[in-house]
Amino acid sequence: DYWLSLLYKRLIGPKVLAIHVAGLQRKPRPGRVIRDKLRIYAHCTSYHNHNYVRGSITLYIINLHRSRKKIKLAGTLRDKIVHQYLLQPYGKDGLHSKSVQLNGQPLVMVDDGTLPELKPRPLRAGRTLVIPP
């Protein structure tokens, strides 16, 4: 929770943006409950974050499915470079792991008072985003 909260505080600004996700709006069949297992949120990037220009958008995606999901950005987002901050459990214990990795690298404090650099993974414009479970 700590690393997620830290990234959230650094990236997410107060302005929430409306988004439309094609393919998630399904009609329920009788007797079936549709649970939204792919959650996508959009905010203006925090104006306190000097690594990004005003007008930058931060998407955060939570995939509760058991398999990876692919997302293709559309509209004006299609032509933008994406900085991916992919948080996952680190180690063989999966969700029970006590460690977290960012873009495949374990997150650990540099020393008692120094946070590691939280580097994004740049993805080329137009690339399909693959979101692991």
Could you characterize what this model shows?
- This is HPSE2 protein.
- The protein has one domain (1-131).
- The protein contains 1 helix and 10 strands, in the order αββββββββββ.
- It has one helix at residues 2-11; strands at 12-17, 38-45, 57-63, 69-71, 82-84, 87-90, 99-102, 105-106, 121-123, 129-131.
- It is globular.
- The mean pLDDT is 87.
Which features characterize this protein?
1 helix; three-stranded antiparallel β-sheet; 8% helix; single chain; mainly beta; 133 residues
List the helices and strands and how they pair.
Blueprint: H1 2-11, E1 12-17, E2 38-45, E3 57-63, E4 69-71, E5 82-84, E6 87-90, E7 99-102, E8 105-106, E9 121-123, E10 129-131
Antiparallel strand pairs: 1-2, 2-3, 4-10, 5-9, 6-7, 7-8
Approximately how much beta-strand content do the residues carry? 25-35%
Domain tally? 1
Which stretches are poorly predicted, pLDDT < 50 over at least 5 residues? Answer: none
Major β-sheet annotation: 3 strands, antiparallel
Order of helices and strands: HEEEEEEEEEE
The averaged pLDDT comes out at: 87
Protein name: HPSE2 protein
